[in-house]
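Human: I would love a firmer grasp of how sequence relates to backbone shape in proteins. Take your time, and here it is.
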Amino acid sequence: MSNFVFVNNYKTTVASAFSNVATSLTLASSTGLPTLSAGQVLPITLNDAATGLVYEICYATAITGATLTVTRAQEGTAAQNWSVGDRAYCAPTALSVAPVNGNGLNVFQVANAVASNEAVNLGQAQADFLAIGGNAVSSTTAANGTPVGTLIDFAGTAAPTGYLACPVAAGGAGLLARTGTYAALFAAIGTTWGAGDGSTTFQMPWFPADYASVQANANVGTDTVGAVIAHTHPNGMTSYTTSQWPGYVAGTSSGYATTVGYASDTGSTGGAANLPAGVRVLKCVKY
């Protein structure tokens, strides 16, 4: 694969007639020409001075002064005979910014910036500008800077792009493949919420319907049954002296005219689980 080199504002003219089979091109000026290393090429475009309609792209593979060793008729152009005074210049060409640089869509590529005021490419942007809390973007951080595995409370009824709605029970659709689409999520949370089948799947976060999520203490992914704070329920009974008991009749053998009964508890209300009051949202996880 060729490593293309460019120089800014290099334009000159042909200094010596150049036939369509020649491979040594002498130009009028060497000012600005780079020194090429092994594997590097400098694209040179030739254009006739007479009509301005004839072009040829050459690749310079070696440079000595103003003399270039070139590969002729590149990128679909034809080798031409060139005359003294015809134009020669360095400019990006279709192939120099396309497949040979891994760019099949022919989109102009930007090299890594090395000084201020230079453009940065996507890789540098992710590494330098999308750091979260001082930590560089990694395989477990999405391109927008949100860490994979982040949980959100979403106000809609379907998960937003890049997120999965958390199921209300373990297993089933909540078991995800450890490779492919959800590999980054597996790298971020592992088997914290469940090991899946133990080899190819893992459990995504899940939350039973109407249950609250609470702060973990080294036990993320486990559930809690909750607890009720210790308390008492007064039963309404009143303390009496002997003569004050309901139904007491003085002078009888038992001291009571009737038998008085009292309930042993105060009754119960509620459901089968401790559930909080609240407003329902859709819990989602970033993958």
Notes: The radius of gyration is 41 Å. Confidence is low (pLDDT under 50) at residues 130-138, 255-263. Residues 146-226+276-287 form one domain.
